[in-house]
Design brief:
Oligomer: heterodimer
Order of helices and strands of chain A: HEEEEEEEEEEEEEEEEEEEE
Distance between the termini of chain B: 15 Å
Distance between the termini of chain A: 44 Å
Largest sheet of chain B: 22 strands, antiparallel, barrel
Radius of gyration of chain B: 26 Å
Number of helices of chain B: 5
């Protein structure tokens, strides 16, 4: 081995050691959780914080709750929420699950909430919460949240006026190539009750308008019901750009008026 | 420059001892060790110093001729730097010339013989030259970058290499065949292996065209200037070639450059074919150092820049086509040891290709209407080759190792004329990697005194993958499985037999088995538009190996003045790779296909060539070729197969004058692919060309006047995509000065 080769190998080892030493592997025990704070309130010495992977928007949102007393995170016996949209003259809720201990990070309680309308002049969202501590104290409060508008939820209705909410669950960031294509379907039983619909059929058709009267679709697998209101398939975007996906909901052999999602697909 | 080279060589390698002695050297057959009689010993390329005697010996004065070229009928020529202790020089038999054909392009008149193609026109470009070789055609998309096809097979079904180097085109629309990156003034010869029987060297068993570039000549200092002008397309070109060496001949440099520019050409009947302009610059340099032990090392670099290239057959035009191609090659001195090395070569090349349709009327076209589509593509390839010879159990054989890795990228941006439509982007190829390594052996066996057998075999490991997650996910979505890395071991082999019946007649035949894995576009291409059928193609990483069996038989009759050669071949494909209709996502504007193994296909045909010295300084050449190609699954012809075609050339040569009349012709082509393609029938045509050449000033100045398509016939070839017509009557004048 000549001196140049030896020097080269020493340098390569030094670079590797430097890179290895530079990696900080101690401060993030849960690298998959990338949450941003939404809001927090303090009630009776307990600080209830709400975090989410993204700013809250209409459509599907995962909410992560953490309860602290001082610097200590506490685990309550129970924790329930109730999102309410206050429209002055009326109020209503939205489809949501109750929080449960998060499977990835048990310092959080997490749940899925589907906001059906944005905050704004029409009204504002508040999430009422109530939890029972380990020493049986019952704490309740409310947390105002801001919900932005987005393209990810549409609604349609049948001949009787019964509303169905079609939520674009994923892909959250449509990207060229293959994507899981998942919808959530809920209906409105009452202003406070939005149960999932798992016995419908979805007819979807993705399309790209390329201008000049031309356009094309892309390969996809039609979503099918998998339970709890979820309908899962996949979609293989051939290119980035502006796409539409038309969705027809078939409930009890009744095809409801179609809705159209319009969104951008990124290159990568 | 010469002094600079001399100074560098003195500094680097020390002064050479002046050679001033007469030595006697034997020239022998490497295989039989028998002496070679009447071998020509040349100083450089042209001047014959002496010939070998009945015992294969010649004498030479080293002080005058330290570097020589040896040529002999039936053997590969050899350049060698002589040493005082040189005793024997071995030549390799070039026994299967119909399978591994040696075509001299840029030779001088004195080098012409019945075994070589004439330099038909000194100013003729690479494209025109290829198009007139029997068994070779070109797929055309305009006036530039014609894509060669050997026996109807092009692109992925043939090897197209430069000095053995793999160079992958960067344009997914095949605008830049690598022949466009080598200028004819930088070309030494074309090695065309039509049958693919040279499997040990080509590693694949498929038809191979090797563009062998000019190397530095160690015995001459020369400079050539050439300029041409053609009308009515205002084609103008200027080129130069320089060569110099130090006194010892150990250090030599050759450099060349050319610039050419053309406007739109006119087809017959004075019809201007718009968008056929181009502009191109090519520079190359080669340096060679020869060591005292007869080893030599050479370094070569080619850079080619083409701009503003119109492609009337396509939706867009190329704005830039850039190539940088470099190699370093070590040539080992001849050795008869049990294991020896002949050459070791490393190389790297980078191809970049940009095109757009900003100059087109995109609002009114039928395909991809209402949008601009700038496209960019690039390939980067690194490779290494090693070959030598070995003896095992008294059996001498040649061995070859060839490896390369290549990275391909291509994308297309779509900018709608409608401001409400977002820009769209497609990755046609994204981080697509090709890795290949092959090992081949070549054996020569003398079955009888006049019957020679050549057997070659090769094993190749090839894999392809994409390192782009999003690109890979597209194929996962299409086929329901992550593609990962697609790997295959590929085998190929050939057997060739030559029977020298007598001094004039010879019969030869070969049988070639080949396995081919799909290339990077067949496996990982995405939305690649095929102009021959109007479909967008998606790759298929799960393609099975395409197999083929090729059989050739050739009969040749040759005398000193006449040569007739007739070849028949038959190639059967299994698991033929082609496009099949995609299941969904298509409509009248956008139609999609996916690559698949579609079944069997066959290509069969023949070639005839004759060269006759008729006396009276008249030479007649005839070349005819025919192909029959059938997709046996669809029971229809394969697309882009040329019809019966040929040319007849009459040379008249007297003193400093040469007159050449040339008839190019093709029959009509009624066998067309209507299911797998959208081609139409093509009419027959015949074109008459005339060239007059005269040498002046003791041969230092040469003038050439060419009048092509004299009758101004309006026609197109069957392999012209979009039926773009050929040039009509045109006149070209060339001047070449050598000093």
């Amino acid at each position: 081995m000549n001196i140049q080769t030896l020097f080269g190998r020493i340098m390569a080892v030094a670079v590797l050691l430097f890179v290895a030493a530079s990696c900080n592997t101690t401060d993030n025990n849960d690298p998959e959780m990338d949450l941003i704070p939404v809001n927090s309130v303090t009630v009776d010495g307990y600080t209830i914080s709400l975090e989410s992977p993204k700013e809250l928007e209409i459509g599907a949102n995962y909410l992560y709750w953490k309860i602290k007393q001082g610097d200590n995170t506490i685990t309550p016996q129970s924790f329930t929420i109730s999102p309410i949209m206050d429209m002055t003259t009326m109020s209503h809720s939205t489809p949501f699950d109750q929080p449960e201990t998060d499977l990835v990070d048990d310092s959080y309680l997490s749940n899925l909430a589907v906001f059906i309308m944005p905050s704004g002049d029409m009204g504002s969202w508040t999430i009422n919460f109530e939890f029972t501590t380990q020493n049986d104290a019952v704490i309740s409060g409310e947390m105002p949240v801001n919900v932005k508008s987005s393209w990810k939820i549409m609604n349609t209705q049948d001949d009787t006026g019964k509303k169905y909410f079609i939520t674009w669950y994923e892909p959250q960031r449509p990207m060229s190539g293959n994507n899981d294509l998942t919808f959530l379907i809920h209906t409105r039983e009452s202003m406070m009750n939005f149960p999932a619909v798992s016995d419908a059929e979805l007819v979807v058709f993705p399309y790209m308008d390329m201008g000049g009267g031309t356009g094309h679709s892309t390969p996809f697998t039609p979503p099918v019901a998998t339970g709890n209101g979820f309908y899962e398939g996949d979609i293989n975007y051939s290119m980035s750009g502006l796409w539409t996906t038309t969705v027809e909901l078939v409930v009890a052999n009744d095809t409801l008026p179609e809705v159209v999602f319009e969104y951008s697909v990124i290159a990568k | 420059m010469k002094h600079f080279i001399l100074l560098v060589s003195l500094l680097l390698f020390g002064a050479e001892t002046t050679l001033a002695q007469q030595i006697s050297i034997k020239v022998a057959d490497r295989t039989t060790k028998e002496p070679i009689v009447q071998a020509h010993i040349k100083d450089g390329e042209n001047s014959v110093i002496t010939v070998t005697d009945m015992n294969g010996y010649f004498s030479i004065e080293l002080s005058k001729h330290s570097h020589i070229t040896i040529t002999a009928v039936g053997y590969a020529s050899k350049n060698i730097h002589l040493q005082p202790d040189t005793e024997v020089i071995f030549l390799n038999p070039e026994i299967f010339r119909d399978q591994t054909e040696l075509l001299v392009v840029a030779n001088d008149e004195v080098d012409q013989n019945v075994h070589a193609y004439h330099n038909r026109k000194a100013s003729q470009g690479m494209d025109e030259f290829l198009d007139n070789i029997d068994g070779v055609s070109t797929t055309k998309r305009g006036a530039f970058g014609w894509e060669p096809a050997v026996r109807g097979q092009s692109d992925q079904r043939m090897n197209l290499v430069i000095d053995g180097m793999q160079v992958f085109k960067a344009c997914v629309d095949k605008m830049d065949p690598i022949t466009s990156y080598v200028e004819s003034n930088n070309l030494s010869k074309l090695q065309i292996d039509k049958s693919g029987s040279g499997v040990a060297q080509n590693g694949t068993g498929i038809s191979t065209v090797n563009l062998v570039t000019q190397k530095a000549d160690q015995s001459t200092t020369s400079f050539d200037l050439n300029t041409s002008y053609r009308m009515p397309d205002q084609y103008r070109t200027f080129s130069f070639i320089g060569n110099t060496a130090d006194r010892s001949g150990r250090n030599a440099v050759r450099f060349s450059g050319s610039y050419k520019k053309a406007d739109d050409f006119k087809a017959g009947n004075d019809q201007t074919i718009e968008n056929t302009q181009y502009e191109k610059l090519n520079l190359s340099i080669n340096y060679r150092h020869t060591f005292p032990a007869q080893h030599s090392i050479e370094a070569s670099y080619i850079t080619d820049k083409a701009y503003d290239i119109g492609y009337p057959a396509l939706l867009m035009d190329a704005t830039k086509a850039l190539a940088d191609i470099g190699q370093i090659k070590f040539n080992f001195a001849p050795s008869e040891r049990g294991f020896s090395l002949n050459t070791a070569q490393i190389y790297a090349n980078s191809i970049r290709h940009s095109m757009d349709d900003y100059g087109r009327d995109v609002a009114n076209r039928t395909v991809m209407r209402g949008m601009y589509m700038p496209m960019y593509g690039t390939t980067t390839t690194y490779g290494a080759k090693l070959n030598g010879a070995a003896t095992l159990f008294d059996h001498r054989f040649d061995w070859f190792i060839d490896s390369f890795t290549s990275d391909a990228f291509g994308d297309m941006l779509m900018e709608s004329l409608d401001p409400n439509i977002q820009d769209m982007l497609i990755y046609n190829l994204d981080e697509v990697k090709t890795n290949n390594v092959s090992f081949g052996l070549r054996h020569r066996v003398d079955l009888f005194d006049n019957v020679l057998l050549k057997v070659e075999e090769s094993i190749r490991y090839k894999n392809l993958r994409t390192d782009s997650e999003s690109h890979a996910s597209f194929f996962e979505g299409l086929y329901g499985e992550a593609p990962g890395t697609r790997s295959k071991f590929l085998l190929s082999g050939s057997g060739s037999l030559l029977w020298m019946i007598d001094n004039n007649w010879s019969l030869s035949g070969s049988l070639v088995y080949s396995e081919r894995m799909g290339n990077h576009m067949e496996l990982f291409g995405h939305y690649i538009y095929n102009y021959t059928d109007g479909y967008f193609y998606d790759g298929n990483p799960w393609l099975k190996t395409e197999r083929s069996v090729n059989s050739d038989i050739n009969a040749t009759w040759e005398t000193a003045r006449h040569s007739f050669s007739f070849t028949l071949f038959h190639k059967q494909y299994f698991n033929y790779i082609d496009g099949i209709l995609a299941n969904d996502a298509g409509n009248n504007d956008f139609r999609f296909k996916q690559y698949a193994n579609v079944g069997d296909a066959v290509i069969t045909g023949g070639e005839f060539r004759s060269i006759n010295d008729l006396g009276m300084m008249i030479t007649l050449e005839n070349r005819i070729s025919y192909l029959y190609a059938q997709n046996q699954t669809l029971d229809e012809p394969l697309p882009l197969i040329p019809p019966l075609k040929g040319n007849t050339t009459l040379h008249f040569h007297r003193g400093k004058n040469m007159l050449m009349a040339d008839l190019e012709w093709a029959a009509e082509q009624n066998r067309i692919a209507e299911t797998s393609s959208i081609e139409d029938q093509t009419d027959a045509y015949g074109i008459l060309n005339l060239t007059y050449e005269r040498r002046w000033m003791d041969g230092n100045l040469t003038s050439i006047l060419s009048l092509n398509n004299i009758l101004d016939h309006y026609y197109h070839t069957h392999t012209s995509i979009g039926n773009i017509p050929e040039a009509g009557r045109n006149l070209m004048i060339s001047l070449s000065y050598q000093f």
